Amino acid sequence: MRGISDNVHGVILALSSSIFIGASFIIKKKGLKKASATGGTRAGSGGHAYLLEPMWWAGMLTMIIGEGANFAAYAYAPAILVTPLGALSIIVSAVLAHFILKERLHIFGIVGCVLCLVGSVSIVLHAPLEKKIESVMEVWHLATEPGFIVYTCVVVVVVLVLIFRYVPKLGQRYLVIYIGICSLTGSLTVMGVKAVGIALKLSFEGKNQFKYYQTWLFTVFVIVFCLLQLNYLNKALETFNTAVVSPVYYVMFTTLTILASMIMFKDYDHQTATQIITALCGFITILGGTFLLHKTKDMGNNPSTNAILLPKNNKDIESSKPTNEKPKETIDI
Question: Quick one: how far is CA 52 from the chain centroid?
């Protein structure tokens, strides 16, 4: 009975986390818009005027509450139950953006979200199980093995190239640049958060882990990378449609985090062929959903494409055309 009760508590916390995190995207974007309206430099242009906007801080507080609930959920329920529920924040964000920010989510965008959710859940459900970690030194040993060091170096190099080469020229045009920085650094941040979480848990149990300098290194690492993620997530939210930012960020972050975890903890050695194939199919599904989101992200706000959703008969089409306008053969989406 206790196991069932713990799972119920974990599900409630995970659902609460999704609601808070999804709502935080909307509240923060409202704050970013208000900061821009007052004459401050936009976050997408390198400004930080949003730090003086109470609405943005309200969104930040909402996100912190959501992340805290998500962290607590793992104390009650297994990760295989809690992690997929995080995808619900995408739905919350998209629905609120539709009604509050007037960012209409096209029907194809909804299908893209569903594909992203299905693919992400498939990967999470068939991801390798983590090893039981009982000391920060165990995490440090895993983090300093050659495989994870190579992954870390690759991530750092790619992030630096994106920041210094592509952000100034293409950051305002391509969502994947901002979200790529957030997701790549986020995959490393999660590993650090796990180390700090283990240190706190063991310390509360009477096994002080803060006597090791590695614990403090993990703590500093998490703080620096969290600030970096926050900066570029703000740029993405202010520059692009929220209904697209949320699912793409979730997809990339989840995929890279699973990859980092597999490299660091090496639990993929125990995976069956069925689990590996299912995870691969999930990844392909994610790619399809992401492509659909990108190709249709502006269709909901473009009147010329609304006719695709509501086909008309020939009579209606002819009567709706101006007499001096020639019929168009194609519609550019």
Answer: 25
